[in-house]
Design brief:
Oligomer: single chain
Radius of gyration: 15 Å
Strand content: 5-15%
Low-confidence stretches: none
Strand order of the largest sheet: 1-2-3
């Protein structure tokens, strides 16, 4: 735990020295899919409680240095099997499973006062039957993140040049994200 706090502190101090006051970390994804091409070592592991504990320590240390932290990739990218940079991944888990596992680290991050949350370019049919990526989903970002989990901070998208969100092009993705 001390190594995580120290890493966040050093990252925040170095960012601030460069005039940066917002870091897109920590990764709150649980690493549960062996074929996931994206998350792997970016995650704090497969145990939702442990990931939440480590992410909370990172958030506390980073924000104590005056730099905003960002819990990503909401509501979770750890179950995907394709690269969201290239195409739209779909997570077919039930809403109950997602709430009991994938959302745990995000819930902890919100309880800790994380300044921002980054959305995932991943579809979760159990959370939004439309099949829209979380980034473009009112049920996921407004109903779940804002209303159910009570997050009232900054919501930021993953890069809008990624295949998982493009559909009609970058301009349309930007407008739909807003």
């Amino acid at each position: 735990m001390q190594a995580i706090r120290r890493s966040a502190t050093v990252s925040a101090i170095e960012a601030r020295s460069l005039g940066i006051n917002w870091i897109y970390a920590p990764d709150c994804d649980i690493d549960v899919e062996p074929d996931n091409p994206i998350i792997g070592t970016r995650s704090f592991g497969s145990d939702p409680d442990r990931v939440g504990e480590y992410a909370s320590a990172w958030i506390d240390a980073c924000q104590a240095e005056g730099v905003l932290a960002c819990a990503k990739h909401f509501p979770g990218h750890g179950r995907t099997k394709v690269d969201s940079h290239k195409t739209l991944p779909r997570v077919e888990e039930s809403a109950e499973t997602l709430r009991a596992t994938d959302l745990v680290p995000f819930r902890r991050a919100i309880e800790r006062g994380v300044a921002s949350v980054m959305s995932a370019h991943v579809a979760f049919p159990a959370l939004d039957p439309s099949g829209a990526p979380a980034t473009l989903s009112r049920p996921i970002l407004t109903e779940l993140l804002r209303n159910e989990l009570g997050f009232d901070g900054i919501v930021v998208t993953e890069a809008l040049i990624m295949g998982g969100v493009l559909g009609g092009g970058e301009g349309e993705a930007g407008v739909r994200a807003l």
